[in-house]
């Protein structure tokens, strides 16, 4: 409890409600603009490459950078903050928080829930696809189809093979649609996890009256939102949503943290709870742990493992695999460095 008392004394020396309010209003606009820049950058870059030979390779590298950002967000930012909130002296001295590692438990629950959603949605998509499973790589199927078409034109194969070609084309289209559905599911679940995280950041800042904490946090969160936006934007770009859906998802990411700041300011005005109150710390710890579990699962299973072990384009190009790995490391390193400030 002595450590708790000294921490309170340091906090009281920096408490200034009016100065904190001015910093928070400034942060709303700064964080909104940087969020827009971050999430739109990969989306616009993908649209620039669309229709060009390098489109698939560019979106893959962007997605690997995004995977690194999201994995680092979950392990270096969200999870440590959740553990810190639930181990704070105001919380850890209470029953049952001192008796069990709830942060780890809720992280586990988040990962299992993400798995359940992933399995259920994938099974539903496959059930409504025609059940066609393509054999071989996309390049092999295209070569087989081209060879068969030329043999039909030369009279070597009968018209019945033309029907088979049509069936294969339909099967290819269905397989590609399943891939798109999976990519869209990944993007949507990722956005849910990131929105949880963004709300926690915003509410925590909004409730804080500590100007010494808020001032450096504004600049750090600006960069944080740029890299996190690039991570989510890379996944949205590869999922090839319609313009309306892409705009909606980008808008929701951009406004979530500013809305969280406003909500935190309202909560402080209405209840008097600041970001160091036990109830606020418990809420921050539980929501942070849950979103961390979601993000860890999605980053490792649906982004990194899917691309590095099951992507035919990457397995057939050694230089693309190296470039993707470098992008993954750059994404995770960039986000990890920001943990020095936010």
From TrEMBL:
Signal sequence annotation: none
Superkingdom of origin organism: Eukaryota
Locations listed in the record: Membrane
InterPro entries xref list: ZIP, Zn/Fe_permease_fun/pln
Entry's transmembrane regions: 28-48, 60-80, 100-117, 189-207, 219-241, 248-270, 290-311, 323-341
GO MF annotation list: zinc ion transmembrane transporter activity
Major location category of this protein: membrane
Topology in the lipid bilayer: Multi-pass membrane protein
Family: Belongs to the ZIP transporter (TC 2.A.5) family.
PANTHER family per the UniProt record, alphabetical: ZINC TRANSPORTER 6, CHLOROPLASTIC, ZINC/IRON TRANSPORTER
Designated name of the protein: Zinc/iron permease
Source species: Parasponia andersonii (Sponia andersonii)
């Amino acid at each position: 409890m002595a450590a708790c008392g000294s921490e309170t004394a340091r906090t009281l020396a920096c408490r200034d409600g009016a100065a904190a309010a001015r910093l928070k209003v400034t942060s709303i606009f700064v964080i909104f603009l940087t969020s827009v820049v971050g999430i739109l950058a990969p989306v616009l870059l993908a649209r620039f490459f669309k229709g060009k030979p390098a489109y698939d390779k560019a979106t893959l590298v962007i997605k690997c950078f995004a995977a690194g950002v999201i994995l680092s967000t979950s392990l270096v930012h969200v999870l440590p903050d959740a553990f810190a909130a639930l181990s704070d002296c105001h919380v850890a001295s209470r029953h049952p928080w001192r008796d069990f590692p709830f942060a780890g438990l809720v992280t586990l629950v988040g990962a299992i829930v993400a798995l359940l959603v992933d399995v259920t949605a994938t099974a539903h998509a496959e059930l409504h696809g025609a059940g066609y499973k393509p054999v071989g790589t996309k390049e092999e199927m295209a070569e087989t189809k081209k060879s068969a078409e030329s043999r039909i034109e030369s009279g070597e194969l009968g018209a019945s093979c033309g029907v088979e070609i049509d069936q294969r084309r339909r099967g290819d289209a269905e397989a590609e649609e399943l891939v798109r559905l999976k990519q869209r599911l990944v993007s949507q679940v990722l956005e849910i996890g990131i929105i949880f995280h963004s709300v926690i950041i915003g509410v925590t800042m909004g409730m804080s009256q500590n100007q010494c904490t808020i001032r450096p946090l504004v600049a750090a969160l600006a960069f944080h939102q740029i890299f996190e936006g690039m991570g989510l934007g890379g996944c949205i770009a590869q999922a090839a949503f319609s313009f309306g859906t892409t705009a909606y998802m980008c808008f929701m990411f951009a406004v979530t943290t500013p809305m969280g700041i406003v909500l935190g300011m309202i909560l402080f005005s209405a209840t008097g709870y600041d970001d160091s109150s036990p109830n606020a710390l418990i809420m921050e710890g539980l929501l942070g742990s849950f979103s961390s579990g979601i993000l860890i699962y999605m980053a490792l299973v649906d982004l990194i493992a899917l691309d590095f072990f099951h992507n035919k384009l990457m397995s057939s190009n050694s230089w693309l695999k190296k470039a993707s790995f470098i992008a993954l490391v750059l994404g995770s390193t960039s986000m990890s460095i920001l943990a020095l400030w936010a």
